[in-house]
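Progress note, sequence design subtask.
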C-alpha cells in the first residue's frame, strides 16, 4: 500500500489537488451561473469524499482534502490556470502530471484506481446540473462541451468508459 510518505511534499500537493482539478475541468469547460457552479462544486466534494475503493492512497487523499475543507483551506493550493484560452489544456496537463506521479510511486492497481476516481469526480460534476434550456425545459444533463472535456480527461488518464 502506498502512503503519503512515498511522495515528496510537491508531489503530494499535486496528487492531493488532482480530484479538485478534475471537477474544475467540467466547470471551466462549460461555465454556467453561480447555481450551476455551486452544484458542480458540491458534486466534486461528494465525489472526493467517497473514493471508489478503500485503497490507502485514495482514502488518505480524500481525508486530507475533506480536512482542508473543514479548516477552510483551499485544496487547490497554488494551482491556477495561467491562460484562460488554454484552461482545458492546462487542466489536462495537470491531471496527467498527477497521474504520472502516482504511476511512478504507487502500485499499478492504485494508479488505475486513482485515474478512475478522477474521471468519476469529473463525471459527478458534469451530472450535477442541467445545461441550457429555459427554466429547466429543453436542458440537457451533460452539455456537448462538458462531454468533450470528460472524453479528454478519460483519454488523458487512459481510462476507458
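Output:
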Amino acid at each position: 500500500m502506498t502512503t503519503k510518505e512515498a511522495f515528496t511534499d510537491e508531489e503530494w500537493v499535486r496528487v492531493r489537488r488532482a480530484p479538485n482539478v478534475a471537477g474544475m475541468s467540467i466547470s471551466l469547460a462549460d461555465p454556467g451561473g453561480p447555481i450551476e457552479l455551486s452544484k458542480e462544486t458540491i458534486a466534486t466534494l461528494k465525489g472526493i469524499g467517497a473514493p471508489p475503493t478503500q485503497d490507502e492512497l485514495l482514502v488518505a487523499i480524500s481525508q486530507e482534502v475533506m480536512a482542508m475543507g473543514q479548516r477552510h483551506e483551499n485544496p487547490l493550493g497554488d494551482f491556477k490556470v495561467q491562460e484562460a484560452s488554454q484552461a482545458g489544456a492546462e487542466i489536462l496537463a495537470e491531471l496527467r502530471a498527477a497521474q504520472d506521479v502516482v504511476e511512478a510511486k504507487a502500485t499499478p492497481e492504485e494508479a488505475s484506481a486513482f485515474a478512475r476516481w478522477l474521471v468519476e469526480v469529473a463525471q459527478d460534476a458534469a451530472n450535477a446540473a442541467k445545461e441550457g434550456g429555459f427554466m429547466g425545459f429543453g436542458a440537457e444533463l451533460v452539455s456537448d462541451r462538458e462531454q468533450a472535456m470528460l472524453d479528454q480527461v478519460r483519454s488523458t488518464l487512459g481510462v476507458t468508459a
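Residues 4-156 form one domain. Work on this subtask will continue into the next period as scheduled.
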